Amino acid sequence: MTDGTTLHPGMARRWWSQWVVGGVDHDAVLKTIAEDSGWSGRYAFLIVVSAAISLLGLLMPSVAVLIGAMLLSPLMMPIIGLGFGIATLDTREIRRTTTALLAGAAIAIALSVVLVSLSPIQTITSEIAGRTRPTLFDLLVALLSAIAGAYALIRGRGGAVVGVAIAIALMPPLAVVGFGIATLNWTVFAGSLLLFLTNAITIALTAALVARVYGFGAHLSPQHTGWQLLLFVVALGVLSVPLGTGLRQIAFEAVAQRQVRDTIRDRFPDASRLGQLDIDYAASPIRIRAMVLTPRLDPQADRALASDLQRQLDRPIDLHVDQLQVDPDAGGVEVAQIAQAGASAPDADRQQQRAAADLALIAGVDADQVRIDPQARTMTVQAAPLPG
Amino acid sequence: MEGYRALETRARQALPAWTATLSPPAATAPPAVPIDAGVIGSAALDAAAWGSARLGRALRIEGGSTAQRRAVSAGITERGGSAEAGRPGGALRLTWTPQGDDA
């Protein structure tokens, strides 16, 4: 391969075709693929079983059951077969594998729609949610898995295909597509369909590329090879756009969640605790609702935190922090909820202070600005200007 | 103005044992008075009367026709606010009377 320190491209090509491509039994590989990549009774049976198990795994939710479904799913072979069909420009093979793939996908989706409609549980579980937001990482997983899958088929390393099936997981996204249709949830439907298309297109085109590298379609002209490369680059480029946006959004949400948490914690005294945090990134402005257990109520918190976070995240924010006063004498553990205060019959003075603090919080001012008339049971306060 | 009024409602719900009165900041602008198919918005009159009562200030109704200015003035007064008909010219609108010149 090398001659001293110089590498000759011609020698490398010769070495590759003699020692790597030469060891491949092209006919045997194509025969294996042809046997498993078309429509058959066995294929239909495995589609039905794996789609049903996938759906149950998604609804339970159970990763172990899902992996079982992934191993049973026969969808990978028509997709790899399609790739080899593209590599050799065998239109008959392309038609045969596409038919099997589309029919298999349609059966899986239809079965999933029926089962979800019959199921009393239609909750979006973590496993379902995880398949509705594909990112560039999914494309990379499909790309690498397809290289491994095509290599395993060509070199006869059948065992590796098992790992590939688990890594790519073609059947669960189809079951989620059915779930989206049955529950009329188009976000779920579109997200999971994009994930399935990403996997299917990437596997088919990468398998085609690997097949060409291993000498399949050697009879094709350089123009054909050029078109195949163009198809690969354009398809992956087009898929990268929504997947890249998805990845950026997920990265933004991870950073934003940490910043919101830290900013709210820093605003309140050390003894306080952030009890609950809900962030709705889809809303515009971003909706943040938090609950803080604090020894000292902070009437300005909402406004200050919203402006702080707006600056940090560079997005409009709608923030509200519910503050529950914690009794510092009780070691900061016992939550002194105002609603519960009456039940434990504290003295009138303390009750009045709490009511004033509550009103001050609503008005966005300090508690000492609330004018109280205990005899008339009235409280008067001038509100701070509302933002906007 | 509607926002501050909603805050007062919220305060009253949160403090049922008290009569909570929340007034808007003094610089709050009076609400706009939309006229839809010749009908003046009742919600705007409610909010205007509430703001006038809370701030202890009178509103002046400017623009529109004489009948409209009178009607709005009467509507605000009926709702517990304080208002007077102002000058014609331009669209119907509310302004605060200058301090010390309250009706």
From TrEMBL, chain A:
UniProt-listed InterPro entries: DUF389 (IPR005240)
TM segment ranges: 43-60, 66-89, 101-124, 136-154, 161-182, 188-214, 226-247
Keyword set, alphabetical order: Membrane, Transmembrane, Transmembrane helix
Highest taxon of the lineage: Bacteria
Pfam families per UniProt: DUF389
Keyword presence, Lyase: no
Protein's UniProt name: DUF389 domain-containing protein
Species of origin: Sphingomonas metalli
Automatic annotation (TrEMBL), chain B:
Source species, domain of life: Bacteria
Region named Disordered: 78-103
Protein name, per record: Uncharacterized protein
